[in-house]
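Our preliminary data section would be incomplete without showing what the modeling component actually yields. Below, a chain of 480 amino acids is followed by its predicted structure, encoded as tokens that our downstream tools consume directly.
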Amino acid sequence: MNKNRISEILDGIDEKYIDEAADYAGQDIKPAFLNGIKWRSLAACMVLIIAVSLTGIVFVTEAKEYKAAIAFFDENGLSADGLSRSDIKEVYRDISTQRFTYDKTADVIKNVVSGIEIQQDEPTPEELKTAWNRNVWLNNNSKLKTGVNYRIEYKRNDDNEDILEKSIVECYKDGRILWKTDVPNYFVSDCTATSIGTAAWGYDEEHFFLIYWIALFNDKGEKLWECWLDYYDFKHEEIAAVLDNNDGTLAVIGRGNFDYLYLSKFDADGNEIYFKKTYIGETGVWRAARFGDGYLVQLTRLMIGENARLARLDSDGNIIDNFAYEGDDCSYYLADMAEYAGQIYISAYAVPKKGALIGHGEIEKVLDDYVFTKKNGDIPAEELTPAVRDNYTAVLLVCDPNSGNPKAFYSVEGSLGGGLKVNESNQLEWDVESIVSTFSSPATNSFSIGGTCQVYRYTFNTSGTLLKQIKTGETTGFRR
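Predicted structure:
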């Protein structure tokens, strides 16, 4: 008699008799847990290895294995709803041996991560009209945003548009302008508020992607210092982020020569006090955030479809861990990350996974199913917008700080994950960009589908409870 047949027979026996037999034979054997494995998707997380030693007659052995399986389910918060006795044991064996081949294992594991779908009303005709008419391409929403934010414009030479005369930087707080300053000759790529002033960075046209520039401005928009990141062994440089170390110093994280991750630190007077580079191969460095006394950095390799990998760095810039996020049927694109209440929060969005890894990427399904089937790609907005919304789901992952494993998540359909920020009330704010209008532009070089998004803001407390949802009135551009 094989083990599968025994399980079928035991499924029909009253459990109290089997339990009595197991109790008579000896004490329950408790599982011994070892280290977890890295989480790779929402359908596989926090999996533990179990080692057991079972002896005795076949019925008692089966009963003891079943009890061990139940203990394993309880210990790891797995649900046995809808599973037979033999299913529970098969899932238990499948996880403990790390095979993950049993057809019901994925459903069981998937339910470990608690997820909440946040419902969002479909955009009204009035909202569609407002979003469409607002000039989001010129970044004119600064007066609508809360907290400190920046608006950057570029002034070119009247006689020769190839020559940049200056960048114009405006600093706003809660919709009120604090200061405005001109930065001659330099492209200012971005700005961020820090405890020692506003850090700005960019490049000039002559040194585009060769040497980057960083500067610090005070609360009146006056430049305190500037510095060129002219590292002698880098022929190409990029700055991904400038971060506040909260000790009077700034951390600059970027990429050199397309295959080095670097960390540079500056004091409040603009002196470089630390530099370290780490070889990472041909890998993009896109975003970074503070975490503990170290950093989280987003690394990408677009040619192989790797968009959602985080490297954890210590305070000296050494890579001490890597976390990758991917799904069986979808791809994730990271938008922002933040440390909050001792957890890692990751803002992202999911799109259906397709065969192509490059090219049109995240909108490939929409283009294949809708745009490319129309003559000249002419598809009305009332048909295109629902298709684009169906393609996107905003996701907020709440992850364990040590393993990177997601513990919970929130999702919003028809949207892109946006920025994360801890407000002055120590609440986490998650911006979600709801797609409200689109248009097809297959002949445009820089994008195939354009449109606008309406920004919703979700606020959470330190326990991860969703406190409120508001429409901010902001709009953002959608170009893919």
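Confidence is low (pLDDT under 50) at residues 1-14, 16-58, 135-139, 355-359. The first helix runs from residue 3 to 11. Preliminary results of this kind motivate Aim 1 of the renewal.
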